[in-house]
Write a structure and sequence with these properties.
Layout lengths: L1 E7 L2 E2 L6 H13 L9 E3 L2 E3 L3 E7 L8 E4 L4 E8 L9 E11 L6 E9 L2 E2 L3 E6 L2 E4 L11 E3 L3 E4 L8 E7 L3 E7 L10 E6 L5 E6 L7 E5 L4 E9 L4
Parallel strand pairs: 4-11, 12-14, 13-15
Antiparallel strand pairs: 1-2, 1-14, 1-16, 3-5, 5-8, 6-9, 7-8, 9-10, 9-11, 15-20, 16-19, 17-18, 17-20
Amino acid sequence: MVRIQSRIAGKSNVFLAGALCLVILLAQTSTAQLPVTSLSTLTPNGAKQGTEIEVTVGGGDQETLTQLVFSHPGITAVQKTNPQGEFDTAPIPVNNVFTVTINADVPPGIYDARVIGQYGVSNPRSFQVGTLEELRDPGNNHTIETATELAVNTTVTGVADAAKQDHYKVDLKLGQRIIADVVAQRIDSKLNATLVLYDAEGRELANNTDSIGRDALLDFTAPSDGSYYVALYDFVYA
């Protein structure tokens, strides 16, 4: 998750036959473990206050998931369903997909999310609620030429592909200050984020890594009017 915020003149605009075998089998049975529902991913893993989004969950032993629950009562989820067919007695649930609603009064912050299914309640994963407009990363912006255009005061949610850079284009005015903040480690991601900012000619003007733990934060003031490009990649798998 990347947040692009703008500040001008220092002022924020947002922001495993017989008795022996039987003994062995009994021993194995006593140490066997039942499956346990686990939650590894939420896509997307955040949203703006007062919005409704579709979230896909991933993990292990997620057979017959029935609920996605959050640590704040103002964040609720209903499993997505397909229309009821002619011979169905009820709408058909869509595996691992939920419609999540974030009330407008939910404070910005990071909340726990868990799934519930046949094998119980999962471990928690982080879900962030913010105040900025949200944009899903398209996944095809790996060059400056295909950079995703962003307005300032925008949050981008997505997945950083291994050995690739994601590029974003921001148009700025002389003296306009922006802060690009990668929220990854803070929401359980293993990404070791690096941010690099280029001008329209491809010259590197600024870069940052490991600013807040493994999360990168870049603070930049435009030296002139023009288009600037922010590149994000994993420092470990670049």
